[in-house]
Write a structure and sequence with these properties.
The protein is an alpha+beta fold and about 210 residues long. It is built from eight helices and eight strands, in the order H-H-E-E-H-E-E-H-H-H-E-E-H-E-E-H. It folds into two domains: about 110 residues, Endonuclease I-creI (Roll); about 100 residues, Homing endonucleases (Endonuclease I-creI, Roll).
Length: about 210
């Protein structure tokens, strides 16, 4: 009976434009698309620290009709509460999410797909990516793209300039072998933060120096 209800719900769901943008930003950032055992569907799992609970709730509200249970708190280590925990939720498994997984995880590892310029186009998607993976550095910022290759960083660099008029430099992250980050200088940091300002929830204002 439960599976019948899930199948009925699945048949009614279709990503809205805004849900798709939040999804794209989350995939580039901290979100993950998991395939089901059957391989017919995938589901989105979002997790954030206690400090970012408000941000997780903000994301949950975008996907509320896709989520069967409210966000939950989970300890990092059940036998050691001092290590703290995190908040998480997951969506229903769906073929649309499987199609997106095939784009971003063609060989099980996350990549920057060749058509990222057609996917990363809105200020909302940019906001989610920055709030997930961005860090202020004084009046500048950087995007933590260490999991992507130099060539993938070049592609992201190109798309940020083409779609958002944001110029970046590709910098080494830490020591040798630590990967790369996209550094956004002071001038373009201000432009980026202005673009995303209306989407930043109160709990994430620490990632922007603009006045709320």
């Amino acid at each position: 009976m439960y599976s019948t209800a899930i199948n009925r719900l699945r048949s009614t769901l279709k990503l809205t434009r805004n849900q798709r943008e939040v999804l794209i930003g989350s995939i580039l950032g901290d979100g993950y698309l998991f395939p089901t055992v059957s391989g017919k569907y995938a589901y989105l799992r979002i997790a954030h620290s206690e400090r970012q609970k408000g941000y997780l709730i903000w994301k949950y509200r975008w996907f509320r009709d896709w989520v069967l249970t409210r966000p939950r708190y989970q300890l990092q280590n059940k036998s050691d509460h001092s290590k703290g925990g995190y908040w998480w939720f997951k969506t229903i498994a769906h073929p649309e999410l499987l199609r997106m997984r095939r784009i971003f995880y063609p060989n099980r590892e996350k990549i920057v797909p060749h058509n990222i310029g057609e996917l990363l186009k809105s200020d909302l998607a940019l906001a989610v990516w920055y709030l997930d993976d961005g860090t202020l550095a004084g009046r500048a910022l950087h995007l933590n793209t260490q999991s992507f290759s130099y060539q993938e960083n070049q592609l992201l660099q190109h798309i940020l300039k083409r779609n958002f008029r944001i110029e970046t430099t590709i910098n080494k992250s830490g020591g040798i072998g630590k990967g790369y980050i996209l550094h956004v200088g002071t001038k373009y940091t201000k432009e980026l933060l202005k673009r995303i300002d209306c989407f930043v929830p109160p709990s994430m204002r620490y990632k922007t120096f603009l006045t709320p």
